[in-house]
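Input chain follows. Return structure tokens only.
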Amino acid sequence: MNILICPDKFKGSLSAHEAAEALAKGILNKRKKSSIQSIPLADGGEGTLEVVQQMHGGQWISVQVNDPLFRPIEASYLWLADQKTAYIEMARASGLGLLLKKEQNPLKTSTYGTGELIRHAAEAGATTIVLTIGGSATNDAGIGMAAALGYTFLDHNSAELDKNNVDIVNNIKSFIKPLSKVIITGYADITGEKLYNQELARKRCLEVQKKLEIPDSRTEIIPMGSNILLYNNDYHSN
């Protein structure tokens, strides 16, 4: 019998690769003559880059960044030099797995560390960045990430807002854009992120686009299947 095993991770216990190995071992224990092929999958959350590397190769680049509570950590991204493409997993810098249960409060967390990974990749020469945005511990509308990329956010008095300010989203009156740019493509399982439907996800993307004044000509939001969105724009960074 030919058997194809394509698992996602078992969150909190097994990676997709480990789950595939365990399933294969169990099947072969009962069906020793089976021919098994394993293809681990991912939904944009933890473990996505391992799946990408298995399919496309690439080099791990380690960077010191800030975790969701602005504590220094080491996080890595996948670099495909021949394509000048960086694959970045948001969960590695801004993920729930980096926090204790008692620390998991989206009103106090930031995507700044993910922005630091993007900035490092852009400065290293990436012309395209693929960002997987599952497993996040944050709900700051990407403001922290934008701050790391060079955006300066101002309050009603035109004073610069502190990136550590947990209420920064509600206090923004205006902002100053950086100059240079890099193309970013983001992938997310919007059902897994409790967005309930593609229309709501589309509206949320458009809200961020409007907030950052990204023109329509540089934005594309594409539904993929029943629960996946691809959000592609020219993003700016120093």
